[in-house]
Automatic annotation (TrEMBL), chain A:
Primary location: membrane
Keyword annotations of the record: Cell membrane, Membrane, Transmembrane, Transmembrane helix
GO cellular component: plasma membrane
Pfam assignment, any one: ABC2_membrane_3
Annotated ABC-2 type transporter transmembrane domain residues: 19-417
Residue ranges crossing the lipid bilayer per the database entry: 21-44, 180-200, 241-260, 308-330, 342-363, 396-416
GO molecular function: ABC-type transporter activity
Protein name: ABC-2 type transport system permease protein
Membrane topology field: Multi-pass membrane protein
Superkingdom in the source lineage: Bacteria
Subcellular location: Cell membrane
UniProtKB/TrEMBL annotation, chain B:
TM region positions: none
Xref: Pfam families: ABC_tran (PF00005), DrrA1-3_C (PF13732)
Domain spans labelled ABC transporter: 2-229
The organism's place on the tree of life at top rank: Bacteria
Molecular-function GO terms, alphabetical: ATP binding; ATP hydrolysis activity
Keywords from the UniProt entry: ATP-binding, Nodulation, Nucleotide-binding, Transport
Name used for this protein in its record: ABC-2 type transport system ATP-binding protein
Alphabetized PROSITE patterns for the sequence: ABC_TRANSPORTER_1, ABC_TRANSPORTER_2
Family: Belongs to the ABC transporter superfamily.
InterPro entries, sorted: AAA+_ATPase, ABC_transporter-like_ATP-bd, ABC_transporter-like_CS, ABC_transporter_ATP-binding, DrrA1/2-like_C, P-loop_NTPase
Length: 444, 304
């Protein structure tokens, strides 16, 4: 047992001390946080930038209805002539002048939007939409429909997606956030299993090609060496994962405060706190910063991130053990990395299939039979389950999938150790799959 | 010290060891000889518990070989390697700890050995920066560091320059004097004669010869002598006394390699020649291990 600890220690330290590990671990959260900060920055700047004050010069006697200020455009009627406004535009608070000339409301002509800058496409679209709306109201009123009836026609549609939780109570949910979190977790899982599985294989090949293997197994059992390596590298993966989470979270907070300033932070946090309390919040009614970021944060808060992270770690360890044992067996059977190709395919395929199906079928139908089976079979369950998780998975399914995975990795570790102990001492022979099966049946 | 009884090891298609029995005495240097592929490495792997025998048993100090004995055996494989990216000191420390030494004790001994073999400033170096010979020194230290009772060296001198080979040889002799038992696996017969007390010759998975080196060489004496004299003598005249294997005459000096016939003695040869020539030397050729090795192996190969 003590020897396994020594091996774990060496495998862990020799990797964690590598420059490439340190750089990757520090750089990735910086990049992620940088993107995150930029997205927030641009969305907030975008929202702010589209608020324009428009002075309306109305020369049309038949338009008795008035344009109402909207979220993005503040209309204000002025009693000045167009010429007077034009000459004084720079000194006023207005960004644009909207000129409504005399026209037949059935065929409006000659409407002008004048500014010191050329009005953007989105602004002119909004203004023309508002005018169309205005003319429609005017016409409807002309045909004798009252204001109250008109108000009654207007309905704001806001879909709140809710699902009934286990306990029968309604929970806030967001399909968008679930998809993003699920997809991200799936991609991460795929990358982690692949990267660290291959590290195990490389480690075994390194020991074989450098021929230290004979010295090693005159001191320790092959099984101890294999497990020590697998566990040591798993700890490297976990270290990297935890550091990424912690660093990304802290750097993101810093980045957000740097980009957005204190007000937005205060707002963000107040929203987040409210959401945690469970009180439903109307989407920041008159706030000028009603950005997609806030909506995103709100729905993120509705997900149980702690549970997702814990389950992710469990399935990472399970899936990693499941696959890395197979990679160790492959590593033991070959003399160099170039020879691994023929064995890599059968091991890569289920992982790739699981990855592709999880990101397409499972995200579209997280409760369907394909999603169910993918999240049960240990070859694909680590990926499929973390993709499904944010949508909500019944506890019994989660437990069953975990159990199958544990049984699965005990199976692959056992299988791999039998191939490994023979393979590591075989030099200079091309190994076929058939031969590996033969090794499997060797006595000690 | 080590008793090997009727070991059989069967791989899928060939039998690597066929009923091999050996006895390695405590404090001796034992040579394990044999051509390539004879089964030496298979036998060593069984002694070091890398693999197990199909049948037969190995006794270590009278006990059946088990995991406890790993810390009492040091093994330097022929195919040797180290972790390329690891620092030398760290690496030897790691290997020593795997053999059960504590960190402080291992560090103390590594410093002692590094000092002794003039490697003191290697501690922080990486293996990939060392030459092959330097790496071998590191491996030798790693092999003997935990003061094993039994040290197994597979081709220990390959890759060493003569100076370093001599240093290592002296270390081996010193360790042996201090009580360590050695098993040598080698093809280099001159080092066998120099170092080994006993040998066993393995060929085609079977042991075909074993015993003390001196006895074996005595046993393979075949009345061959070097004879050198000055003067004229027709060797044909002594045909019933000896057979000439090799002859050469330089500056009036004749050198003969002769085999004295059975029932005849060196004295008879001398008395036959003395009246005719002046004898410079007559000495017996004791077969080298190399000769015996080749003789035994080719003999065996000629058998059906």
């Amino acid at each position: 047992m003590n020897k396994i600890l020594l091996i774990i220690q060496r495998e862990y330290l020799s990797r964690v001390k590598k420059k490439s590990f340190i750089i990757m671990t520090l750089l990735t959260p910086l990049i992620v946080a940088g993107f995150y900060g930029l997205i927030i920055y641009f969305s907030i700047q975008g929202v702010k930038g589209t608020f324009n004050k428009v002075a309306v010069v109305n020369n049309n006697k038949s338009l008795t209805e008035k344009l109402q200020p909207t979220k993005n455009i503040g209309y204000a009627y002025v009693n000045q002539s167009l010429e007077a406004m034009k000459s004084s535009l720079k000194t006023t608070e207005y960004d644009y002048i909207l000129y409504l000339p005399e026209f037949d409301i059935s065929s409006p002509k000659g409407i002008q939007l004048i500014g010191t800058k050329q009005a953007g496409l989105s602004l002119s679209n909004r203004v023309s939409g508002d005018i169309e709306e205005l003319i429609r109201t005017q016409k409807l009123k002309a045909s004798g429909i009252s204001q109250t009836d008109l108000d009654g026609l207007k309905t704001d549609v806001n879909i709140d997606t809710k699902k009934i939780g286990e306990a029968g109570k309604e929970e806030d949910s967001s399909a968008g956030a679930s998809t993003i979190i699920g997809t991200a977790a799936g991609i991460f899982m795929f990358m982690f299993i692949l990267l660290y599985g291959i590290q195990v294989m490389r480690g075994v090949i390194e020991e074989k090609t450098s021929r230290i293997i004979e010295i090693m197994i005159s001191s320790v059992k092959p099984f101890q060496l294999m497990m020590g390596k697998i566990i040591g590298i798993a700890l490297v993966g976990l270290t990297q994962f935890v550091l990424w989470i912690v660093l990304t979270a802290s750097i993101s907070t810093l980045a957000v405060s740097a980009f957005v300033g204190k007000d937005a932070i205060a707002q963000n946090t107040s929203v987040a706190i409210k959401a945690k309390d469970g009180t439903s919040i109307s989407p920041a009614v008159n706030s000028p910063v009603d950005s997609p970021v806030l909506a995103m944060q709100k729905s993120l808060a509705s997900l149980d991130l702690t549970k997702i992270i814990l389950v992710f770690i469990f399935f990472f360890i399970g899936g990693y053990l499941f696959y890395s044992a197979l990679y160790a067996a492959i590593g033991s059977a070959v003399d160099s990395e170039t020879e691994t190709q023929q064995f890599m395919m059968p091991v890569m395929m289920p992982l790739l299939v699981g990855y592709a199906l999880s990101l397409s079928v499972v995200t579209n139908d997280p409760y369907g039979p394909i999603a169910f089976w993918l999240s049960m079979i240990p070859f694909t369950s680590p990926i499929a389950m973390v993709v499904r998780l944010p949508y909500g998975v019944p506890d019994w399914q989660l437990a069953l999938s975990m159990l199958i995975l544990v049984v699965g990795f005990i199976g692959t570790v056992w299988l791999a150790s039998r191939i490994y102990r023979v393979g590591i001492l075989m030099y200079g022979k091309k190994t076929s799959l058939k031969e590996m099966i033969k090794w499997f049946t060797y006595k000690n | 010290m080590l008793t090997i009884k009727n070991i059989v090891k069967q791989y899928a298609t060939h039998r690597a060891l066929d009923d091999v029995s050996l006895q390695v005495e405590k404090g001796k240097i034992f040579g394990l000889l044999g051509p390539n592929g004879a089964g030496k490495t298979s036998l060593i792997r069984i002694i070091t518990q890398i693999t197990g025998p199909d049948s037969g048993e190995v006794l270590f100090n009278g006990e059946r070989l088990n995991v406890e004995h790993i810390s009492q055996i040091g093994y330097l494989p022929e195919e040797r390697g180290l972790y390329k990216k690891m620092e030398i000191g760290e690496q030897v420390l790691y290997l020593a700890k795997l053999k059960g030494l504590s960190t402080t004790e291992a560090t103390r001994r590594i410093r002692f050995w590094f000092e002794k073999l003039e490697m003191a400033d290697w501690w922080k170096k990486k293996v990939e920066d060392l030459s092959k010979g330097m790496q071998q020194k590191v491996q030798f230290v790693a092999t003997v560091l935990h003061q094993p009772e039994l040290i197994i060296l597979d081709e220990p001198f390959s890759g060493f320059d003569p100076v370093n080979a001599d240093i290592i040889k002296n270390e081996i002799l010193e360790l042996n004097k201090a009580g360590a038992t050695f098993i040598f696996s080698t093809h280099r017969m001159e080092s066998v004669e120099e170092l080994c007390d006993n040998i066993a010759l393995i060929h085609r998975s079977k042991k075909i010869l074993d015993g003390p080196v001196k006895e074996i060489r005595e046993q393979y004496r075949n009345n061959t002598f070097w004879l050198e004299y000055e003067g004229d003598y027709n060797v044909e005249n002594s045909n019933q006394l000896f057979e000439v294997l090799q002859a050469e005459t330089v500056n009036g000096k004749t050198q003969l390699k002769i085999r004295i016939r059975e029932e005849q003695t060196a004295n008879q040869v001398l008395s036959a020649l003395l009246p005719h020539v002046s004898i410079n030397r007559l000495d017996e050729v004791i077969p080298t291990m190399n000769d015996i090795f080749i003789q035994k192996v080719t003999q065996q190969d000629q058998k059906p």
